[in-house]
Amino acid sequence: MNSDKMLDAKGLACPLPVVRTKKSIDELKSGQVLEVHATDKGAKNDLSAWATRTGHELLNTAEENGVYKFWIKKA
């Protein structure tokens, strides 16, 4: 999946993946896609809930070798 920006949040524990995601998505224009890579298992629920709460769209998620990947479209 294509993205406009990639955020490496690997090795960060809650709540840092969400905090960094918010900061990164604020730098994008509406409709652009942020790709987030995280290793914190809680990030899956946290980022999904955050996207819903803030009106952004979680387009896709994937897991590869313990790395959770998220594609979030800015509202």
TrEMBL record:
Residues forming coiled coils: none
Alphabetical list of InterPro entries matching this protein: TusA-like, TusA-like_sf
Cited Gene3D superfamilies: TusA-like domain
Domain (UPF0033): residue spans on this chain: 7-31
Family membership noted in the UniProt record: Belongs to the sulfur carrier protein TusA family.
Protein name per the record: UPF0033 domain-containing protein
Organism of origin: Paenibacillus montanisoli
UniProt lineage: Bacteria, Bacillati, Bacillota, Bacilli, Bacillales
